[in-house]
Amino acid sequence: MRVAVDARLVTYQPAGIGNYVLSLLAGMRALAPPERIDVLVSRKDDALADWVAPMRVRRLWTPPHHRFEQLALAAEILTLEADVYHAPDFVPPFFRRFPAVATVHDLAFLRMPELLTPDSHRYYGQVAAAARNADRIIAVSDCTRRDLIDLVGAPPERIDVVHEAADPRYRPLPADELVDATLPDDYFLFVGTREPRKNLPRLLAAYAALRSRVPDAPPLLLAGRRGWLQDDLEAQAERLGLGEKTRFLGGVEPNRLVVLYNRATALVFPSLYEGFGLPAVEAMACGAPVIASTAGSLPEIVGGAARLVDALDVDALSREMEQVWREKALRAELRERGFARAAQFSWRRAAEETLDVYRRAA
After folding, report:
1. What number is the average pLDDT over the span 235-246?
2. What whole-number distance in Å separates Cα of residue 234 and Cα of residue 267?
3. Are 263 and 115 in a shared domain?
């Protein structure tokens, strides 16, 4: 079996789905003959082309999410020798000579269409047609599988659930690797792209309520690149009087993020919807207690190893943050539960299960 994996999004969007592709390829590299996997990269992506060796590289001109991607990509892969094509970003080429597998990470854009930009709406508006067109669909959680069936009518018999995992670098670090004079001793941490479904305005409101009750509560650090429709968060923090107690770190490279997780009092992840919720698993793998919302896949993924709260209940979130901070025994319990839960996910297992999906598609 020869597989073509579309990895163009790795350089187009170096987060989220791009990281999924990198982790999946790393897992496959240890399991499958490299000459049987073609990695499709953007034509100028020398770094990824070097990284995937000895897998085969095929360079493409068509950028991901381009308005004419369906036509241009179909033309480019016309001569591709493959038994299966994997589209990790929801939408496979509709015109092709071989079976296709599509990974669907979440359907937030159908649950909350007001959160999409026009360009995103145009691209992700193809998901119903993609679900009909793909020979197999990988859903990253049972929650996403249910949404595929309920919202777009995807055939249940063609959907396989393959969970994601934390990269192995996310682990407890020895004390000497955690020394960092730029970080406070205690802090709440949020990790994720700044976009509306991450629920950051309510997180800031909950933190402001906590500070009003407990002036010496730890600061709040927010790590993640700017997404869309969330450019006013710094202004909101100033209005709430949080200017000196809230730090926006921007995008953080993975090795730095490991340190942030390890030192955090708790990860606070009050998302309005997640198809998987990778930061929660990364935090648990590093030993950080997790406070997450009850929305989307999060209860499924944390599996009883985190404190759960209604994403819309600002007061409940504020009280939960206070309790986790004040109760050392609770943090220790969440830490141990988190280690055990995170260990149930692995990219090797995900790669094995994905290869099985390819075989069924072929």
Report:
1. 93
2. 20
3. no
Domain that holds residue 299: 175-342
Residue 170 included in any domain: no
Structure tokens at 347: 């990219």
Q: CA torsion sign, 29 to 134 to 84 to 39?
A: negative
What is the 3-state secondary structure of 175-216? Answer: HHHCCCCCCCCCCEEEECCECHHHCHHHHHHHHHHHHHHCCC
| CA nearest to 214, candidates 122, 113, 144, 319 | 319
Query: How does pLDDT run across 283-294, given as a tens digit for each residue?
Result: 999 999 999 999
Which residue do the tokens 């399991």 mark? 31
Tell me what percent of the chain is helix, strand and coil, each rounded to the nearest 5.
45, 15, 40
Those residues with Cβ within 8 angstroms of residue 268's Cβ, 6 or more apart along the chain or in another chain: 188, 189, 190, 203, 220, 291, 317, 321
Per the domain annotation, does 194 fall within a domain?
yes
Q: Please name the amino acid found at residue 351.
A: A
d(CA 233, CA 204): 8
- Put simply, whether the predicted model's pTM sits higher than 0.85 gets the answer yes
> At 64, is the secondary structure helix, strand, or coil?
coil
pLDDT tens-place string over residues 122-170 = 888 899 999 999 999 999 999 999 999 999 999 999 999 999 999 999 9
Tokens 């790590």: give the residue: 223
User: Residue 263 belongs to a domain with what CATH number?
Assistant: 3.40.50.2000
What confidence score (pLDDT) does residue 228 get? Answer: 65
Report the first-to-last Cα separation within the chain, whole angstroms: 8
- The two three-digit tokens of residue 151, written as one number: 């919202």
Residues 6+ apart with CB under 8 A from 339: 284, 285, 287
Per-residue DSSP letters for 16-55?
A: THHHHHHHHHHHHHTTS-GGGEEEEEETT-HHHHHHTTTS
The band of 103, judged by pLDDT with boundaries at 50, 70 and 90, is: very high
Q: Are 85 and 180 part of one and the same domain?
A: no
The sign of the torsion formed by the CA atoms of 55, 255, 20, 23 equals: positive
238 & 290 share domain: yes
